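Teaching assistant's notes for section 4

Start the section by putting this record on the projector. Ask students to predict, before seeing the second block, whether Ribonuclease will look compact or extended. Collect guesses on the board.
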Amino acid sequence: MGEANQGACDLSSEASSASASTGLFVPPSIDCTKLLSGDSYSYFSPHPPSPNTFNSTSRGESPQDDYLVLGIDEAGRGPVLGPMVYSAFYLPHQLQNSLLSREYKFDDSKVLTPGVRMNLMRLLCTPGNPLFESCGWATKLLSARDISSGMLRPGAGSYNLNAQAMDATVEILRGIVEERSMNVREVYIDTIGNPVTYQQKLEKLFPSLKITVAKKADSLYPCVSAASVAAKVTRDVALELCHEEVSKRCDAENNAQAFTTQSWGSGYPSDSKSVSWLRNNMDPIFGWGNECRFSWGTAKEMLEVKGGFKVDWPEEEENLHMKDFLLTSAGAISKSHHEVREWYGSRDQS
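Reveal the predicted structure now:
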């Protein structure tokens, strides 16, 4: 399982700077160092109180009725820019409707305004708030770089998006149910692909759980609605921070002020702002950075059709053997490192 980020992002100097400069609330599911490095990672919130702290026996319920329900949803499956985020949200089953639906009015994140989503996320991260005190959540952020590298593996080794999504779901479920020993009994998941096939796979891995995979689960089950909000806010904040970092980098490398102001929109291929940003910010050889999914058709077409340079690699017999660079002295190793780098090219820093 990927390394879990247990610390709030505001403990990071990068996050503090980003939050202060933009007024953006950065949830603890954002690890700025990993995000801006193009790494995938997981985050697990502090454990909520045990369900029995809500005194179910006073309502005539037996102790065995104390258990947690958990919902899973994702955000950012289709964009060419930015990460995909899976989120799990869990809480005592007896609070699912009263707390999430009636008191805080969670719903499918797509029907909530950005302001409402952000406010719910802020409350979820605020100690003393009922959401913080009674609920737990987790995210798995899959970076654009890792998504693409998996999908672009040659031949039968390709790691498609559905397989990556399934592994993300399994990772956060195991992290909550097995590693953190949360008493989850019911799991509700918004489907990817065929819900029957997806549910059967998960039931084999987690035979003790009652798993329901359904279309539009984020509108049917409050815990899935809450998961969709956590995933969407994490994805949106990650996208904004990536854009800010990329703009600074482009401005420094190219001395072009336009980079600092041009929006890349939602990151979806159907968004004209996103396509325009990709077209205007494409390096003719290297394309883009960790923020782009090179495996998407939009990026592939631009590189293949609109790229400004064709790279002719040396014939195989002319290539130097890597073992020739593995010399024993530190100076020789350093020298060989630079020779290899220059041989295969690098981004122009001038």
